[in-house]
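Hi F.,

I've been meaning to write this up properly since the lab meeting, where we talked about keeping a consistent format for the predictions we share between groups. The idea is simple: the sequence comes first, exactly as it goes in, then the structure tokens exactly as they come out, then a line or two of notes. No screenshots and no reformatting. I'm using this chain as the first example so we have something concrete to point to.
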Amino acid sequence: MFEGTYTAIITPFDEKGVDYESFEKLIESQIKGGINGIVFTGTTGEPATMTDAEKKQLRRFALDTVAKRVPVIFGTGSNCTLSAVKNSAMAQEEGADGVLVVTPYYNKCTQEGLYLHYEAISKECSLPMIIYNVPSRTGVNILPETAGRIARGIKNVVGIKEACGNLEQIAKTAKAIEGTQLQLMSGDDKLAVDIAKLGGTTLISVASNALPKEFSHLMAYAGAKEFDKAQAILDKYSDFVDLLFAEVNPIPVKYACSLLGLCKNVLRLPLTPMSEAKAQLLCKEMQRLQII
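Output, unedited:
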């Protein structure tokens, strides 16, 4: 259902709040770059430091600006199941095309708790749902057998965004969901081609904030099973991607986008601007690649 490259988009801020002038510029650059869809208020969008009122206004702006040119997915996850249910139902009412729901963080629930969490959301939100596995941030890991159970038991769950970083586990997940509606999706730019070889259909990308055209081409090649061409693109930008994760996401990618003139380099505490030494390395790499 959601194939190709989807950008996990940053949220531009200024001293007053969300910088909507920059946000429009950023969204238009994504669509012009051929991106297949956009994920708003995912981790990269810093929703944890936004108020409910800000997120509501952002969702309205996103839907109005995209204007159905590409699918819009909203991050609606929470470590409180009731909040995740409410957020997802609200996204449906407002006109989203899908929701991205991260595993409950901090609580460290069981695998049974994970299943029941997603089941509860599905009862109140019929939108296509992508579940998001990123144990380095949440402390919870969707095991392959749980992914298989979800695939067979919760019909509107259409994808699993994998960012566990463990290809052996991802291969087991690919096997566990084989023959179901659940698409395997990469949440890790560096593993996009490897996951595509396992049957992955989609990359939810951080790097495409800065390089929508290039990372759209990458997944177009991967989707056509031209893996050598896809890998060649990834290899070209390998050092750039590494630097995008040299500090906590989205610190580096927001700096990269500021160098491209897409936004200001403003983050909200507890996130801070990229350290000077690493910022210099990222700037030099972008110059070497002639991105800036």
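Notes:
The longest helix spans residues 52-66.
The two ends are 34 Å apart (CA to CA).

If this format works for you, I'll send the rest the same way.

G.
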